[in-house]
Amino acid sequence: MPYYIGDVIKDEKSLIARTPEKFRESGIEVRIDTRVEEIDPVKRLVRLAGGEALPYDFLVLGTGMKPLMPGIPGEEREGVFTLKRLTDAVRMKTWLRDLSCRKAIIVGAGFIGMEMSEAIRNLGIETQVFHRGTLPVNRWDPEFGKWILEELGRHRVGFVTNVETRAVEEGREHRLRLITNRGEDEADMILMAVGIQPATELARQMGLPLGKTGAIRVNFSQRTPQEGVYAVGDCAESFHRVSGQWVSIPLGDIANKQGRVAGGNIGGGKMIFPGIVGSQCFKLFDLEVAATGLDEREALQSGFHPASTLVWGNSTARSMPGNKKLGLKLIADRATGKLLGAQAVGEMGAVSRINTLACAIWAGLGLDDVGWLDLAYSPPFGGSWDPIHIAAQALRRQI
Amino acid sequence: MPYYIGDVIKDEKSLIARTPEKFRESGIEVRIDTRVEEIDPVKRLVRLAGGEALPYDFLVLGTGMKPLMPGIPGEEREGVFTLKRLTDAVRMKTWLRDLSCRKAIIVGAGFIGMEMSEAIRNLGIETQVFHRGTLPVNRWDPEFGKWILEELGRHRVGFVTNVETRAVEEGREHRLRLITNRGEDEADMILMAVGIQPATELARQMGLPLGKTGAIRVNFSQRTPQEGVYAVGDCAESFHRVSGQWVSIPLGDIANKQGRVAGGNIGGGKMIFPGIVGSQCFKLFDLEVAATGLDEREALQSGFHPASTLVWGNSTARSMPGNKKLGLKLIADRATGKLLGAQAVGEMGAVSRINTLACAIWAGLGLDDVGWLDLAYSPPFGGSWDPIHIAAQALRRQI
After folding, report:
1. Rounded CA separation A298/A340 (Å)
2. Chain A residues within an 8 Å CB radius of B279
3. What structural domains does chain A harbor?
């Protein structure tokens, strides 16, 4: 009987707590709230916190990521949260509701910071984002960062720049006080969203090699060097098809795919995970923010000679009602014309463009192809020249 | 000085009638409402209706398509329309308004029939579509045809099947009466949307070869076999990258691209039009209807061994509010696993999926790639397994 060990999420409705029973019907034993203390790769034993030892033929590590903390005094105070799993969100929501919170501070302006700023603001809570830089989501071009900043402002989310956090103290008017280089700010909750790192304690303890990213090294079958041991999801590396590097990009769709590949191979199938191209997106109030491939810094680091262009176009034909502004940036290699990366922001159609370009990058297309792609044209969905064509042809002329 | 001869559209606001002046500033003489009677390819002369003859070094034929008529008695009556240019739409709108029309009949259930049924219905006019088949838009799978039919019904557009038109007569309660094998129906206007054919009179008269599609044969530079003579747009053929055939697909984005290629080459550049993959879409009330590549019949005719699957998925993660049903059909070759075609219908995200798949087909990807494409994942925009992945993996297992 195969085992599944982990802290299966119990949400407010306890729906998922029924998971063990559901799996048992399929002959799988699921143990929730079960801590693995140690793994013995020689005897092939998983030792649990209570002392029990379970033998394995195959072992899949899916230990995920853990949020980083700034490492400042008081960060362990009640009311200071990080977001990793659904239960964290439930705890946060309960805290905000039960204590009738009126003010929240989010430290960090990446994906989690942005998505949570919308979620918390939409509860009617005064929300501020504290960021060590000057513009949110630095993966995107500063032009897009400015637009995202405007979107935060339009929804009255505060944004404080160039922040270094120093301490969390007890507040006077609110529960907590955050001390920074910019002063002292009180709030009823603080969300630390300053970064994440792969959770690799068990992997290290059992002697598995980690990549230079800090995540577990795997091959295209999701196998580690130890016989029968696989790693999948945020704790494992992925092959980036553009840079040719093994990278650590913790995203749910990648984890899903890797899990299917590991399971298929353990079940006797022949499957590989063909890698990623770095596609990602998030929603921020009315904006779609999306990217794929490499940004210019990564392209340089990978040995390419990047050139880029940023065009402002339209999500639909200009004549259509409901037409929205769309920004699209393309990055290509000067030597070969190969498309290396793309970024898009807009109220409509940004994710759609990025998915088309993700496929182009996956297939290794160059600007000569991307500039003439046969996209489905109809005025409600785009112009006869899509921003994709316009940007690709502009960048082609440039290089 | 280069010439541009054609019936430049004059809309109600006469905006475009200013085109000749605008072009003159660039040294281009535009003649509108000017009929070309004959072209002499030996003397390189364009003879106009008034007798004037203009010499040319380069000639671009962009004569477009013309709508077919059913060829029945009375089809020339006032109130019977076809739709080719903006002026046709303006004439129709004026007719509907000035005569306070209450009932309209559309003959034909292709693109034009569908789009016009929405446009006319939205004016509050009782609208019926008469179709020779049983389901609209036969390019799409019957499952999708049924959904489109439901959408017409939901918006109270009538749909009459298996119709053969016989005559148009004067009506009693309404202006016109349409006689068909199904009976007699009155309406204040009738739109004939039964098909189109390339307008090639001038091309034939000057001795240019036509393809088996009936459109003008061109090469990748948009050149015809006659020195200095180009053809672009609906009157010219395009290379279909999947079937390897030269086809006639009259769409505005293709025409735009071909025009740019011809212009670039005439201007001394080196440009080619790399062909199409058959992408197309339209909006029908709340539905997006889109397709790319070959359908099964075309795939068979092109020598492939098509297999297909149709999956019902979701436009966003199932947990998201506003999530909509999305149908996706994929067609692939049994011998190679190569993706040959795709169709999608849904209230949201159908065109987006088809554009991604159009890029996959353009690049010649197979199901092993399409099933693992790295798409930008976030719950508001899709599940971690997108319908694209689900359909591609299902079809892969099937073949």
Report:
1. 10
2. 374-377
3. 35-65+199-266 (3.50.50.60), 69-194 (3.50.50.60), 280-398 (3.50.50.60)
Interchain CB distance below 8 Å, B377 and A288: no
For residues B82 and A89, what is the distance between their CA atoms, to the nearest angstrom? 58
Cα A322 from Cα A286, distance rounded (Å): 13
Residue B184's φ and ψ, nearest 5 degrees, are -125, 130
Measured CA to CA, the distance from residue A284 to residue A297 in angstroms comes to 25
CA distance linking residue A358 with residue A342, whole number of Å = 8
Any bridge partners for residue B265, and if so which? none
| DSSP one-letter code for B16 | G
CB atoms within 10 A of CB A300: 12
Decide if pLDDT at B11 tops 50. no
Buried-state track A120-156, b at ≥16 Cβ within 10 A, e below 16: bbeeebbbbbbbbeebbbbbbbeebbebbbebbeeee
* Half-sphere exposure at residue B220, Cβ-oriented, CA atoms within 13 angstroms: 11
- The number of angstroms, rounded, from the C-alpha of B175 to the middle of its chain's C-alpha atoms is 30
User: Which residues in chain A are contacts of B292 at CB distance < 8 A?
Assistant: 374, 376
Out of B241, B252, B359, closest to residue A359 by CB: B359
pLDDT digits (tens, 9 = 90+) for B227-239: 999 999 999 999 9
User: What is the sign of the dihedral through the CA atoms of B46, B48, B54 and B58?
Assistant: negative
Q: Which residues, other chains included, contact A268 with Cβ-Cβ below 8 Å and sequence gap of 6+?
A: none
What's the pLDDT band for B56 if we cut at 50, 70, 90?
A: very high
Is the pLDDT at B363 greater than 70, yes or no?
Answer: yes
Taking CB atoms within 8 Å and a gap of at least 24, the contacts of A80-83 are A80/A168, A80/A176, A80/A189, A80/A190, A80/A192, A81/A189, A81/A190, A81/A191, A81/A192, A82/A191, A82/A192, A82/A193, A83/A112, A83/A116, A83/A191, A83/A193
pLDDT digits (tens, 9 = 90+) for B288-326: 999 999 999 999 999 999 999 999 998 877 777 778 899
Write the DSSP symbol of residue A297. H
A:326-355 residues touching chain B, CB 8 A cutoff = 349, 351-352, 354-355
Alpha carbon distance, N-terminus to C-terminus of chain A? 59
B363 vs A363: CB contact, 8 Å cut-off? yes
A385 and B CB contact within 8 Å? yes
CB of B378 closer than 8 Å to CB of A281: yes
pLDDT for residue B16 is more than 90: no
Give the pLDDT score at B322. Answer: 76
| ipTM surpasses cut 0.85 | yes
Out of B355, B368, B381, closest to residue A376 by CB = B355
Residue A184 CB contacts under 8 Å (≥ 6 apart), including other chains: A177, A178
> How confident is residue A15, by pLDDT bands cut at 50, 70 and 90?
very low
Distance CA A249, CA A251 (A): 6
Q: Which residues of B touch A254 (CB under 8 A)?
A: 374
- Contacts with B, A 198-217, CB within 8 Å: none
Nearest-Cα distance to chain B for A363, in Å, is 6
Residue B78, number of CB atoms within 10 A of its CB: 9
- Distance, in angstroms, between A205 CA and closest chain B CA? 31
Enumerate residues 6+ apart whose C-beta is below 8 A from B312: B325, B326, B327
